[in-house]
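#struct-help
A.M.: can someone run this one for me? Single chain, 474 residues.
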Amino acid sequence: MREAHPVERAVGMAYYVSDAPGVGGHLRETPDDFRVSEVEAFDPEPLDADPGGYPHLLARVTLRGWDTNDFASELSDRLGISRERVSWAGTKDKHAVTTQLFSVAKADPDDLRGVDIRDADIDLLGRTGRPVLFGDLAGNAFEIVVREPDAPEHVDATTADLRSFASGDDSDGGSVEPREGVTVGVPNYFGQQRFGSKRPVTHEVGLEIVRGNWKGAVLAYVGNPAEREPESTQEARAYVQETEDWAGALDRLPRRLGFERSMCHRLVERQEAGDGALDDEDYRAALEAVPSNLQRLFVNAAQSYAFNRILSERLERGLPFHEPVAGDVVCFADSDAPEEFALPDTDRTQRVTEDRLRTVRRHCERGRAFVTAPLVGTETELADGEPGEIEREVLAELDLAPGDFDLPEAFESTGTRRAILLRTDLTVEHRDESDEPADSDADADALAFEFALPKGNYATVVLREYLKSDPDDL
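D.P.: on it. Structure tokens below:
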């Protein structure tokens, strides 16, 4: 295994599992280089169904260079309706071409057909009895182009390593040509986006919240300068860190840092309403000045960081990812998932004992079960054996325990479990400058990757194994 990039190590992703050097290159030269299409899991009724029973219109929308939230706002403005009447299944990256489901409540089909929004194609599918909700998809299919790779010849060796990791079979050795499709596997890390691409601090905020250090959480978010930020922003954050002068921070923090400024405003208000001193309740109130989804994200990022650390420790100890060892907790496949798309059902788990080990390993081999690790919360029961030892050691190093997640309102989390292996069928095409297939690896000016992932998983954790570069290039 190779050590990961330092920025990735800072969020718990300690290793690459492929030993081959990286191909280099960069992503997202244009939105067309990163295409995402939802694997849909939502069936509508016909458009002529009774609007009383099926008041929501379902549309498949293809967007180019649109943030999902911004498009929803634009669509509601064009229709002259409340933004709350527009829903979607999954939030997508702005720097991409995305195809995804939206629903619109109590809208006229002709009005929706008549909407003309730049870089947006709207295909009306039918009616539904409820809105599309976050998570109403099986997964996402990706078509991703890596431009100007430095060493495209390393693709095949990397693919061979990832194929071995997916199955535990490294008997073949050598390289694998993924042009016709190969099943590969990677550790199911939470990608860099989970923690902040330019300034990965959300997990640091979350860790302080879970430890009950509300002031430390505010300072981790508002202070805590990062080298990748503009110099003026770094200076403003350093001022906060050194002085804890919240009024002065408002004079220095850029207007674009709206959430940080909201926290500072709340603290200034609390100071002016009291004797100027601040306590835990004041700092908690400052964190509650940001939207509730961001409050939850802080805690979720702390859970994700611990999860990444657990996976890295499992790698370091040489435990398998494709099959369980005694003490592991597995979950079973979701019986409602599309036939061609195995999804873990983390509500159906089983602790693996020695006498059940062979049987559960067969289930994992056939895609009927998945080895898991915890996203720790109040209801988390840790594994046994060596997997449980890893989980307890990581939590002890982070000064965390399941009971610590018994927190007020949006900060509270019961926890869940997550599959530790991300497996997919992947193809890679070598292309020349005209985006036609290259005559040889040496002629490749681009690499085109195609694969699909279950919902909640990150395309970048697959691509990082190939590029092995700064996460900014992902």
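A.M.: thanks! The radius of gyration is 24 Å.
D.P.: also worth noting: DSSP finds 14 helices and 15 strands in the chain.
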